[in-house]
């Protein structure tokens, strides 16, 4: 079995949080497994079927469920995880807003929400998002603890502070 995997493995080159990686991956391996094996443990594996968003990362700026994204598809791509959001150990504005708004409780969903929020805030818009737009924009991410309002508050705080 292991020799089958080794025989079928593919080499991919990608950038993760600003660094170049060359990785051997099996064709059926999800990106979430590969990233966690490289130490990016912010990526949580909640449902592993694309329902909860706990495994959300950015691939070329687009938020994706890394449990459903094959690692081989990441060849030539740029990946960002929640670890890449913080600069020199300092939390990003989004991470800070989540912490200050009480949007982090058990924390299991938080890295996925941070990445989904990062993609949402990067979209061009002429005015701050409404609560409905934020809720719709983060609809792919589930949280069992916060009731979502504190997450919406955190996103609004970041949205108000960004240029439109
Ligand atoms: S673990 Fe990927 S969507 Fe739930
Ligand atoms: S903070 Fe616990 S699941 Fe969201």
Automatic annotation (TrEMBL):
The keyword Oxidoreductase applies. GO terms for molecular function: xanthine dehydrogenase activity. Residues 10-85 form the 2Fe-2S ferredoxin-type domain. SUPFAM superfamilies: 2Fe-2S ferredoxin-like, CO dehydrogenase ISP C-domain like. Signal peptide: none annotated. It comes from the Bacteria. Keywords: 2Fe-2S, Iron, Iron-sulfur, Metal-binding, Oxidoreductase. Pfam families: Fer2, Fer2_2. It is an enzyme of class 1 (oxidoreductase). Its EC number is 1.-.-.-, 1.17.1.4. The keyword Iron applies. This is Xanthine dehydrogenase iron-sulfur subunit.
């Amino acid at each position: 079995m292991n020799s089958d995997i080794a025989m079928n493995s593919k080499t991919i080159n990608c950038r993760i949080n600003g660094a170049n990686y060359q990785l051997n991956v099996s064709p059926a391996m999800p990106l979430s497994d590969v990233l966690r094996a490289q130490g990016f443990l912010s990526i949580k594996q909640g449902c592993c079927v694309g329902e909860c968003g706990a495994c959300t990362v950015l691939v070329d700026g687009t938020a994706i469920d890394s449990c459903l994204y094959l690692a081989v598809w990441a060849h030539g791509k740029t990946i960002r995880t929640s670890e890449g959001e913080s600069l020199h150990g300092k939390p990003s504005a989004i991470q800070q807003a989540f912490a200050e708004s009480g949007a982090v409780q058990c924390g299991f969903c938080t890295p996925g929400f941070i990445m989904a929020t990062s993609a949402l805030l990067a979209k061009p818009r002429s005015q701050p998002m409404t609560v409905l737009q934020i809720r719709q924009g983060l609809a792919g991410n589930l949280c069992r603890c916060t009731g979502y309002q504190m997450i919406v508050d955190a996103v609004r705080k970041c949205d108000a502070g960004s240029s439109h």
